Amino acid sequence: MKRLDIKGCGTALITPFRDGKVDYEALAALVDRQVAAGIHFLVPLGTTAETPCLSDEEKVEILKVCRAHAPELTLLVGAGTNSLTGTLRNIDLLAPYGADAFLIVAPYYNKPTQNGLYEYFSEVASLSPKPVVLYNVPGRTGVNISDATTLRIAALGKVAAIKEASSNYAQISRIIAGAPEGFQVFSGNDDETLSLMASGASGVISVVSNIVPDKMAALCNAIMDNDYTTARELYRTLLPLCKSCFAESNPIPVKEALAQMGLIHNELRLPLTKATEATAELMRKTLKDLNLI
Length: 293
What we know:
Number of strands: 10
Strand content: 5-15%
Oligomer: single chain
Number of domains: 1
């Protein structure tokens, strides 16, 4: 198996825009902030990055900025599409620029069968020069990678891990219990970090850590240290923020929060739009309660 061997909190980085272009200066500052906060790894070019709306040139430049400003951190880079050729093309495009592993989402829109998922991920992993991490997010893709299929893929020894955002605790628990040695499971939902890590997951790929990288890293550190008193306190503190960050489609609320904190210009690319006033007010209250604004 191509090993990954990362643990803790990885931030699913947003992509800041200004006047229609990627704001690379703001991105560099965000990465510097993540590193200073002690985040464990970074996940650029995922869902939170609005990657379907980025050009190839922008993807490469974003990855270059991440590598330059986080030279010691593992970069788990989003490269999945809904076609094998498109995914392999992304891998070929991004592999030379500092990617340590690739996050590959289940093909969306196509609605493949479980056998189709197995064949697809097997082919991607066989041809990737870097470790591959499955990404199961049925709420966005329209298809769930079942635990049986995940374990069937894991048994091949070609895939390193899965980011599980199905919110199906029983399914994820069966993956953790049945996984071969070296195969890792990461929570794909911030509010499930405590329960899944307590059940054996290696960490979380987090949206909330765009806002509070120090606190999300501390939560994961406490769990990994078996300090559940601290972990529970941190989890209760962070839970309102976890909920607020999904009041609308991600990354709309998290960009609203970062803009209120003065860290980015609040701009998204269509078809996403800025937060409604109700979401903005909810985020404002949540940030004030955490003394972030």
